[in-house]
């Protein structure tokens, strides 16, 4: 019998982490403030996010009356393309924000670093968090690359922020 590995989120009820909600609310009050964006990223990196997977039709077969039926389907993570042509992998802070976006999507709990690594692997320019609200947040550019590489965002003694990696 096969064993399914523990993703590390035993007892997760799908609720949004209180610290994540507070950090995103603070960011939403001043979305151009880099310090608030970094604080939100730091809060997210210490919680889990839910990456949605949805059914994608593979093959269709037609019966003797000409009606189409699903023959096969696959499950896939969702990439969204923005008006500027860049793609983003979707992630959600909890099951309620994900259900607002698509009630049929299935949650896959992962760390922010794993979601970032998946985004980079899929060629996405960003990780888009809570696309249906309450607070839309994007992890992109250098922040996305550093998280994907396994680095951690740390609060420095002077109140600033810095990245730390493994040697």
UniProtKB/TrEMBL annotation:
Alphabetized InterPro entries for the sequence: SseB_N (IPR009839)
Database matches in Pfam families: SseB
SseB protein N-terminal domain boundaries: 22-145
Highest taxon listed in the record's lineage: Bacteria
Protein name: Type III secretion system (T3SS) SseB-like protein
Species of provenance: Nocardioides aurantiacus
Organismal lineage: Bacteria, Bacillati, Actinomycetota, Actinomycetes, Propionibacteriales
């Amino acid at each position: 019998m096969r064993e399914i590995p523990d993703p590390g989120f035993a007892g997760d009820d799908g609720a949004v982490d209180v610290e994540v909600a507070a950090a995103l609310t603070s960011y939403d009050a001043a979305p151009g403030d880099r310090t608030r964006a970094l604080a939100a990223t730091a809060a997210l990196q210490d919680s889990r996010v839910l990456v949605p997977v949805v059914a994608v039709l593979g093959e269709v077969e037609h019966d003797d009356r000409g009606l189409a039926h699903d023959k096969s389907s696959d499950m896939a993570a969702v990439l969204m393309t923005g008006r500027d042509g860049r793609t983003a992998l979707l992630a959600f802070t909890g099951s309620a924000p994900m259900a607002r976006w698509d009630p049929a999507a299935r949650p896959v709990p992962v760390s922010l670093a794993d979601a970032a690594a998946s985004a980079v692997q899929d060629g996405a320019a960003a990780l888009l968090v809570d696309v249906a609200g309450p607070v839309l947040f994007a992890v992109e550019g250098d922040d996305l690359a550093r998280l994907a590489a396994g680095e951690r965002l740390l609060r420095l003694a002077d109140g600033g922020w810095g990245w730390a990696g493994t040697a």
